Amino acid sequence: MILIKCPYCGERDQSEFSNGGEAHVIRPKNPGSLSDKDWGEYVFYRNNPKGIFYERWVHSHGCKKWFNAVRNTSTDQILRVYKVNEKRPDLSDFKNTLKSPSGEPLVGSGNFAVKK
Amino acid sequence: MKKKYSIKSLIKNSLSDNENWGKMWRNPNPKKHYDVIIVGGGGHGLGTAYYLAKHHGVKNIAVIEKGWLGSGNTGRNTTIIRSNYLWDESANLYDHAVKLWENLSEDLNYNMMFSQRGVLNLAHNEHDIKEIKRRVSANRLNGLDTMWLDKNEVKDLVPIMNTDNLRYPVLGAAYQPRGGVARHDAVAWGYAMRADELGVDIIQNCEVKGIKTDNYKVEGVETTKGFIKSSKIGVVASGHTSVLAATAGVRLPLQSRPLQALVSEPIKPVINTVVMSNAVHAYVSQSDKGELVIGAGTDGYNSFTQRGGYDVIEETVRAIVELYPIFGKMKMLRQWGGIVDICPDASPIISKCDVEGLYFNCGWGTGGFKATPGSANVFAHTIAKDEPHKINAPFALSRFSDGRLIDEHGAAAVAH
Lengths: 116, 416
Fold this sequence. Notes:
heterodimer; A: 116 residues; mainly beta; Folate-binding fold; 4-stranded antiparallel sheet; two-stranded antiparallel ribbon; 6 strands; 11% helix; B: 416 residues; alpha/beta; 8-stranded mixed sheet; 6-stranded mixed sheet; 10 helices; 20 strands; 29% helix
């Protein structure tokens, strides 16, 4: 169970929100001239990192507004919440807690909330 | 040395207080070079190594596992086995697995505790009935043993079920008698032991940190025990597959999410089949120890935390208690999560990719355990021959550009 700080309503339980997947995915400007492979990439392929992830949330059982968040998927810690029209925060703003790509975070997988 | 399990060995070892069973597999240091490296020591990975050695005569194989064998989703699932999938491609793949399950204990001389106690998929509304009857018909055309049961027949099979006095009454069900459960540890251990006998090096507690490639060709893997060379690498790392693929510059259409399960305190036998319900999101079976094994849903967001949210369990338990009022006062003993890799069309990827010598067996999402032997069998073929078996050819990565998706969202036992 995680708490998410809606930029409009403040901190609420995650069950009030729905996740919208990766943020900042841009629809190609020229779909007609794309190859099947490139179009398939846009439709089906999304980043799936262990660590820092830019994602969209909607406060479905609240203000119903969409917003973006940066979350560490290895600990579920939400590092930043920002509005849709705000600039995407730079990756270098965040510290990666993983020693190797598929490794576990220092505080132990999923124990962030308990062991902070 | 070949280990034979029989009534004789059982009696002999019981006389020495079961102290002399010996190790089931070696614990070798990695060599500098292997012909094939399998990344991931779960059922699918160990099975792949076994079939590579047994059917394809590959001699020099390593299975590299980050933790201990079966410590990932092989040891975290609810052990349900069935093949009642809608599309021809899936029915072929999953029934290939069920047929292998049926002889696996004998093939490996190791008891899988495979119990074909049947699997029910409940219908709770008019739409469910139509959808399930369509699936039953499709299954029968594919030679599967699925059938439609009306409410009274369901009640006969599961007398403790509350079929009428609940918000979504039970109106009928699809039933596959050949479906059932197996012991998940036994699958990993059985394959590991027999693969080891065939010369496969099983390297545990060794994390693959990256896959090294040169000009679209694999060179080997960087591990916590150093660099290991190989010209063929099969990645079977479930939730972490996309992380490993990224180190080789390959992008996969996968999203990793926690999927939870829980077990109750043990009770006397009350349910002798597997019951699943998509509409109210509940599935339950009873283990040989007497525990109820309950599967919950996936969290609604990507995560690698192997834990999952409490609201997801709450939803499942609410449905279970309404469907089986007798379970209302039971205590739950354990809860856990596993990281599953979900594909956009809810079907797996068993495929080559743009990098020569790199193979993926992933995207099993919320239902990979049932397919373990079948998946391992066709993946071994794919790696050995450098081309897919006819059963897994439709499950190629190319389907996400040519549009030949195999949409099995409806075949999941519960909506994820």
